Amino acid sequence: MIRQTVTTAMLAGTLAMLAMAPAAAQTYVRGNDGDPETLDQHKTSTVTEANVLRDLYEGLVVYDTEAQVIPGVAESWEVSEDGTIYTFTLRDTAKWSNGDPVTAGDFVFSFNRIMDPATGAKYANILYPIKGAEAINKGEEGELGVTALDDRTLQITLERPTPYFLELLTHQTGLPLHPASVEAHGDAFVQPANMVSNGAYRLESFTPNDKIVVTKNPEFHGADEVAIEQVEFIPFEDLANCARRFEAGEVHSCSDIATEQIADLKARLGDQVRIAPYLGVYYYGVNTSREPFDDLRVRQAMSMVIDREFLAEEIWSGSMLPAYAWVPPGIGNYLDTAPELAYATLPMLDREDEAIALMEEAGFGPDNPITVEISYNASENNKNTATAIANMWAPLGIETTFNVRDISAHYAMLRDDKIHDVARAGWIGDYSDPQNFLFLNRADNPGFNYGLYDNPEHDGLLDTAANTANLEERAKILAEVEAMILRDLPQIPLLFYSSRSLVSPKLSGWADNIQNAHPTRFMSLTE
Fold first, then answer.
1. Torsion of CA 215, 221, 222, 224, to 10 degrees
2. What is the pTM for the complete model shown?
């Protein structure tokens, strides 16, 4: 077994700044994207829910303020030499909010529950790297590779080496449940009177369309370092309303900002407007099974003339970043210098000349135009993006039409029918590893392969990477995969997402990070 140097000492730097936190009771009024559909961590799928669950529960590992993986319930862990067995040592001070100790058996119960098909977990596949998980979740015979060696020792066996496994455990699917509460109350364990949690906070009340109130959990092992006594999560689907209440001093933070308000808010609020890189890509899927999009020269020309800087600054008001790669910058387990489109640094005029030449070589141009339909889900920014790109394509002899659907119909078409020429799509990473973006273009992943890309070499390299335990070697293989995608362009990257937040100067400890994860336990309020 290889001992990893991972202990609770890693928390010292993050918690030191809280030592001087004021002793008076503090209430943090926190704007959230909306109301959670559920607080059952096995049935959640949204950022809205993750924001609340991150305060209520603690997994084996957690994110710190910089979205780095640090110890949670597990104070340390070991990984076998072949990378398939993780042995976690649980801290003896970990307790549930009712005073019960958190045990390895609680995690065994929780992982088995999420894989039980009867649970109906939307995100169970996140944990498919665990041995037996996929088979069990699909109703087949199998034994889950999660074992309690004793109350403080949990062993998880994987199907194959998964270097990003610790990142997976930061997701809400890896949070534990209090078995006795679930067995006693069934699905009603999420009600405030029934919920027993193990995080820095416990659920006080949940009033739909009003607020969720959580209060400090005195049984939490790090309670002495938790400065904020109470959090009120206020749902704001109307982002402008959150901004108004923020400016009135009624809300300490807003989880999102309306794009059209960014410039005005920046002018008035300065650095209280926080825009930071986020783990997501906004792109156009090109149907490579249709003529003329099966011609690589056409796809290259279409991508080459798109002015991504204009889209980012003028259409998205600086709230997005130009994307000349497929995998977002700052992602974990990757190269410092990753592949990018060959013309990333070429001036726009030179790119336009090259693109026109490519189209002429393919037999197209103003005298022999092609018609392209851009499909997108209805939103003002998506509309403006499509209109701008249509204008950029016009000199190539591309005549553009539009097909606008609501978001559910749009993604149902992409998932099931794929009757598009070019379609807008976006992907937010579930965990910080390039595999979570590269797998979208696999031939055996029809649900997300909007470009209908079919490249056995691409898929074979992904399989090789999946069985490569050495992170440096794996990163090089994954970079080859990304280079293929940028060469063949079945899906054209346009923009990288940014997180957009309003943060009061009274709130300390909020650090911008690529996961946009901000646990309240690491923050404090000052007057």
1. 80
2. 0.79
Work out the burial of residue 337: count CB atoms within 10 Å of its CB; fewer than 13 is exposed, 13-18 middle, 19 or more buried.
exposed
CB atoms inside a 10 Å sphere around CB 417: 8
Q: How buried is residue 368: exposed, middle or buried, by Cβ count under 10 Å (0-12/13-18/19+)?
A: exposed
Q: Both tokens of residue 137?
A: 């979740």
**Higher-scoring residue by pLDDT: 330, 459:** 459
The more confidently predicted of residues 488 and 410 is: 488
Distance, CA of 498 to CA of 506 (rounded, Å): 23
- The vertex-113 CA angle with 110 and 116, nearest 5°, equals 155
Exposure letters 457-466 (e unless 16+ CB within 10 A, then b) = ebbebbeebb
For the stretch 289-313, pLDDT in tens is 999 999 999 999 999 999 999 999 9
The answer to whether the Cα torsion of 31, 276, 164, 68 is positive or negative is negative
Look-up: residue for tokens 């994207």?
33
Chain centre distance of CA 346: 31
pLDDT at 17 over 90: no
Q: Is the pLDDT of residue 2 over 50?
A: no
List of domains in the chain: 2-243+509-525 (3.40.190.10), 277-498 (3.10.105.10)
Within 10 Å of residue 335's Cβ, how many Cβ atoms?
15
